[in-house]
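Morning, I've got a small favour to ask if you have a moment. I owe you a coffee for this, so here goes:

…
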Amino acid sequence: MLILDVVSVLIWALVHEAVLLEVSFAAPYVQLQEIRVRAWFGRIQQVLSVKHKPAEDQELFRLMEEIISITKEVIKVMDTFGAGECLWHSSVLPGASLSRRDSGGVGKNVVVGFDKDLEEIKTRWIDDSSKLEIISIVGMGGIGKTTLARQIYDDPSIFYHFDTRGWVAVSQEYSLRQVLLGLLDSTKMLTEEMQDESDPRLAEFLYKCLKGRRYLIVMDDIWDIDIWDAVRRLFPDDSNGSRVLLTTRLSDVAVYANSSSRLHQMRFLNEADSWNLLCKKVFGEKDCPPELEDVGREIARNCGGLPLAIVVIGGLLYKDSRTWRNWRSIAENLNSILSKDDEQCLEILGLSYNRLPHRLKPCFLYMGVFPEDSEIPVSKLINLWAAEGFLKPSTSKTLEEVAEEYLKDLIERSLLLVCKRSCNGRIKTCNIHDLLRDVCVRNAQKENFLHVVNWYGDLTEAGNRRRRRVSIHPDALYANTTHQLISSYSHARSYLCTGKSLTYPSLVYLGFRLLRVLDIILIHFSEFPSDIIRLFHLRYLGFTYNGPLPPSISKLRNLQTVVHHNWTFGKYHLLPIEIWTMPNLRHLYCMPSCLPDPVGEILANNFVVLENLQTLLDVRNFRCSKNILKRIPNLKKLGISYDVSSQAYVDRWQFNLESLANLHQLETLKIIIKNDPYRTSKFVNPPKLSFPRKLNRLTLSGCGLPWERMTIVGLLPCLEVLKLKKDACRGQEWETVEEQFCRLKYLLLEELDLVQWRTKEAPFPRLQSLIIRSCFRLREIPSAIGDITTLQMIELVDCHPSAVTWAKQIQEEQESMANEDLKVCIELKRRIKDRFSSRILR
């Protein structure tokens, strides 16, 4: 044991001084000694792996003497050149990697914001199982994957923990031979003889070099599963805690490498870390001058948390004049500066675009249509893709299902970001980083795919008029000559007005005869723009007009999506009966409107089934008659509302809501019944309800159902989201029983008169979120709720203090059982507290 202790101490001393610290002017010498020490260390391991004999002991003493001799030589060289000339042994990488000696910020090796990531991975690597593990770092280009991997690779505790380390950059264009040579070289096992060997021999050498050792291998920037298939068998699993780290932009590659291990998803830097990185890049260890701090923080914030963007702009600020006026100008023109002054930045990001399959390229380029920092509704994006013809039809899938697959693919490639998810986990909104959007715009212009008009001057460039799609900012519409200039875009197939606010332009040109997409929802028309009716090829129409759709809308036989906003609050219009003669309609968002019964001379001899119609939203006083429902058999999403404030109106109106069960493809349903808040008889005759078995999301408001009738909802086999809002149910007691709500994941109770909620054992077996808002009379939450193993969150807003106490008790009980996943959120708004504390909460 004494021999082992001495050898380990000597080796650690040598490694710590001569490998982590690389001596300036003597680096090749130290690297040579590192190779020799590693070779000796391997021989020592081989000796120690067999039963000790006197001969082996003598071999150990001989090796130890050699190591001592080399250690003395290295220390002598270090003394000669001085410790002050030592450099950290790390590569200079794009992101936040800078050289230590540099007096300024540009040369400084700065890594900011990865402390938690580093500790998380180190803990998993060192403390987890002894089996071979493959861990993947995933994120978009420039987010710092390589920088984090290098930080891990060079960490002293990681270095000491592993016997052998190897690093290879794979990249898009790779060869198996170069990868094998890179791994052998980085593990210090490569000899001159090996360089002439065949790929199978190199693979054999690598396997033998790693066999029996605890190794760390980093494969940086993997784009393809083929290279992983070629090398995975070369990593032996000797149950000694070896690790393989992959960095990639593609989630599917990471999952393919090891589906059983969770991915490490890179996060954007927060504002504090962004500012810290920018400061260190520009000022080094010095402080930022006070007069530059505000504008500097704005610049850092506008980089969107992307380390690559922060480092690029930091290099510009380091070299440029450090005055407030100059920094103010940079802050106002940040994206254009990044685009023009650092081609390498966009090239790094553009690699992901170059690797896209042809079917995804137009979908990605289309993201340039939307303004910077836009939160894009996925439903709108999918409808636009469909109208543009980007989606390949499938016999087994709808266009919307194909689009969701495309969207998921772009997200997995780290090109799009998820902003919000719906209650059942589906993506609700997404966005794109500003620099990636610049990649979209630049490539779209290069390929004549899209022209983005941010201001009037963009319209005057003649070369832009050949492009098929025009995305124009509302501000550019105010110029007097805009009408004439836009009319010159004769090749346009799509015309979109994008921005964040409504506008009232004096002139809007709508004479594009070949137009497929017209999205001018931000333009507020006082009269219906009749030019729209001439756009025969139109597939997507979005506009704002305070009046009804004209019957002539039916002439647009190719229309798939209609989005009609009506800002006359409290008033709604009747849709034209001709709407029933448009068989290609897929989505109808007419807010708010009444849908007429399909009767009369127009439809007498023209029975049309709207087989493609999937979405029908914000329809007032919808009659669920058989004549209507049989014309929309494939409806998937329905939003309807009724105004029953007048008692006479209630008596003569027949809801026929039980007929909704005949919509066999319906997945999302929202029913709102608006009652007179002062009428006490509003719940005398609650509507009869029946639902289709495929229903996945259900929202009820104002229906006044007795709690006993909730059984029909609880027995729905596919229901995952249930929202019971104001007066959805009546009564003071609700008792839930077993074998109901078997798949429910999200439950919202809002503004209900519920007082007592009882439940048997094992309620809601898959519930993840329980939200209770403004249920002032509810005093207890069933304790059995805490026993739901899938429950992740209980949120109470403006609830009785007793209910709050129960929620906290549930959380404490779960924590005592080592269940820390359950989060309890409590919120009591001041106005609610003042209003109800004396009357309700007694």
